[in-house]
Write a structure and sequence with these properties.
Helix content is about 20%, strand content about 20%. Helix 2 runs parallel beside helix 5 and helix 4 packs parallel to helix 8. Strand 8 and strand 9 form a beta hairpin. The chain contains 13 helices and 23 strands. The longest helix is centred in the N-terminal third of the chain and has 34 residues.
Length: about 650
Amino acid sequence: MRPNTMAPFPEILRLNGYSTAQFGKCHEVPVWETSPVGPFDRWPTGSGFEYFYGFVAGETNQWYPAIHEGTKVVDPPKTPEEGYHFLGDMTDRAISWVRQQRLLASDKPFFMYFAPGATHAPHHVPKEWADKYKGKFDQGWDKLREETFARQKKLGVIPNDCDLTVRPQEIPAWDTQTPELQRVLAREMEVYAGFLEFADHEVGRLIDMLDKVEALDNTLVYYIIGDNGASGEGTLQGTFNESIPFNGLAAFETVELLTARIDKLGGPESYNHYAVGWAHAMDTPYQWTKQVASHFGGTRNGTIVRWPKGITSKGETRHQFHHLIDVGPTILEAAQLPQPSIVNGVGQFPMQGTSMLYSFNDETAAERHEIQYFEMFGNRGIYHQGWTAVTRHRTPWVMSGQTKAFDDDVWELYDTTKDWTQAHDLSKEMPDKLHELQRLWVMEAMRNNVFPLDDRLAERFNSDLAGRPVLVRGASQVLANGMGGLGENGIINLKNKSHSVTAQVNVPEGKPAEGVILSQGGIPGGWMFYVKDGKPTYLYNLAGLKQFTITSTQALSPGKHQVRMEFAYDGGGLAKGGNVSLFIDGKVVGKGRLAVTLPMVYSADETSNVGLKRGSPMTPDIAPVSNNFTGTVDVVALETTSESLDHLLSEEDVLHMIMARQ
């Protein structure tokens, strides 16, 4: 949680007269604060950004995004069939904002944070962009690493005397993959490459606009390329739906299943991620991938800096060590603004970053950022004056299960002044140096509130297992007509337990009722309670592996009704199945069974809305747009308590649930 003694950087600039805006990804808001009731002080518009257009989540479906403008949920202006993709949409918004800012307030400087979903999963991209790379990766990830390494040396972005690190034994060699799987793997990388180029194209459109309004040459542009290293969360063979590995179901995604869906990778029906081997290749020349914050493969990002009116050097490279926390101090120094001691009446801790402005016009300048700790999911590392001590505690694509004790972790030691890529471990030759850096890591971790270490991964998705705060406490929740925009953590946790969904609906005269009552999730996984041809229906999407549909045997007649779904969980652990029963006015009208359920997460960004379904579609029964319930959904009650004997909720029951929230 961000204290008020550490003011957000955009707030510092805003208070110094800057226009500020953020576009794209915002992953700084605690999940229990992402609902329509806030609080909003950690949202972009509560953190110094005057305008925000993007998604408040770790990722979003680029074809069916969950968009917020400010703090308000807004629907995409078009559908994928009409040519919609969020990356183009957010760029259009950013271009419009820049144009307006320059026309109405040209005397004010501006600060923009432009954070595309690319190339974070899901790798969604128009097919023509992916097809540009057909056949370009048939040689496989091992050969690609060698080719990339040679180009890096030729370009001068790595030293000529450095060595290519060895592929870890946990990542299979390309030649060990079957020809059938190789075809799928190559397409995964084609889609990824198309997504990356598409993102670069959109950034180019934004840069062109800055040039047209004659603002480019005096704009300091940071183009940071990466996501803490390429992501190794896609499993050893990649996935058509990222929710599959996140819920421990990777063993069910066979080569045959992937092959059958190969032509849909990257399209609106997918929620895809590529194989670990490609992530490792994208982190050439270093070891490991994103999440492994110990090694450079999990931390280093290529960065381009452009500022013609402030940087006289052209087309050069810089190798001084720097960290993301250095960007803020650099901008302040470039803008000739002091680092604040008081913001909004609150005393401030000193900013920890080191300005890199000194290096822009002096290639040989001595390095100033001398020490930096790293930690993620128990993977730990420290940099100090060219030396690094690192330990890999867990592996990104192993989402759950018991991890080893922190004391059992094996540390490695590298001298990056001579070994740029961390290829030669010196821990056995220099144990005293290793111990010195280990102690230094502990001191830096203490100073930066890293302890206690938490090495859980998939378990963090589920609030019951994570033990984090929730928006709604207790075993019940009531939603009323007009409520919506509730992310997965805005609804009580229904996973791995018996529960019911009860709705009070009003069906109009003249035609059968149609449309959505309530849903959670979308293409990645989840459930939906809806009416089709007048019949209440419950759909459960098991991460695209299988769908379970239970339909009422009776249609709803005109007038007021109570429709109810009861799920009786089998128990005995996580991800078990259970029996589904449907009721109309207390009378059973349908039964079915879910063989297995999702234990951890449905989706990252899909929202729940009373009487309609936003976001990605779950079934051809319900269109992705214009799926509102044709009557009225007055109230929806969710409960995780024991089975109702009469399968009805009285007005007093609903009132009691509402009052329990007071």
